[in-house]
Amino acid sequence: MVKLTMVGRLSDGLPLAQGPRYVNEENDNFSCYKQQGEFILKEISRGSLEPSKMTIQVDHHCFNYMVENGICFITLCDSSYPRKLAFHYLQDLQKEFEKFDMSLIEKITKPYSFVRFDGIIGTVRRQYIDTRTQANLSKLNANRRQDLDIIAQDMSGIVERRRKLEILEKVLATPRTVSPIWSSPLLEVIALKWTPITIVVVVASILLWASLVLTDDFTG
């Protein structure tokens, strides 16, 4: 069953539209899955997920996404839902989305404000609720010998990779500073106190050495 659908813009990772809620609103997992969908959209917009089509496994569900013309279509399904049918669903959404003026799409600034497409998502989704309809069986049986050449990854691996990248970015962005040993207040006090004394001792030593050298020259 298709449980969540999200359409987003790749240029900035902005979610534009979403379908009606298909899981119980009292179920905390919905907000969690929605956040994961937004995370996937951001990763695609960053270029961290390069394939134009991918399946991402999480719990007993799968996120399937498809990228076309700078727009990303994401859906969350039960792991038992036919993946081939899930991508047919995304392709149908993409065809409907192409009917809109892209110049208007680029002007959207608020998340999920393209509400005109929410209703279209609900309409298209209803065609994919029952996998045993004649239309859906025909889609599943078409080119049965051809497997979907789509990469599958686990959500935990993608999250861990993002965490490591963020740590690396912080390290590279941190300016190099003087060692705290040399910048400690105690050493500053010692330096202020003993530097003048050290200079006097050095100058006196030089003068004493010079006087001794001159004395030797006159007595030699």
Automatic annotation (TrEMBL):
Keywords: Coiled coil, Membrane, Protein transport, Transmembrane, Transmembrane helix, Transport. It holds the Pfam family Longin. CDD domains: Longin. Residues 6-121 form the Longin domain. PROSITE patterns: LONGIN (PS50859). The lineage of its organism: Eukaryota, Viridiplantae, Streptophyta, Embryophyta, Tracheophyta. Belongs to the synaptobrevin family. It is a single-pass type IV membrane protein. PANTHER family: VESICLE-TRAFFICKING PROTEIN SEC22B. GO terms for cellular component: endoplasmic reticulum membrane; Golgi membrane. GO terms for molecular function: SNAP receptor activity. It comes from the Eukaryota. Coiled coil: none annotated. It comes from Nyssa sinensis. This is Longin domain-containing protein. The chain crosses the membrane at residues 194-214. It is found in: Endoplasmic reticulum membrane; Golgi apparatus membrane. GO terms for biological process: endoplasmic reticulum to Golgi vesicle-mediated transport; protein transport; retrograde vesicle-mediated transport, Golgi to endoplasmic reticulum. InterPro entries: Longin-like_dom_sf, Longin_dom, Sec22.
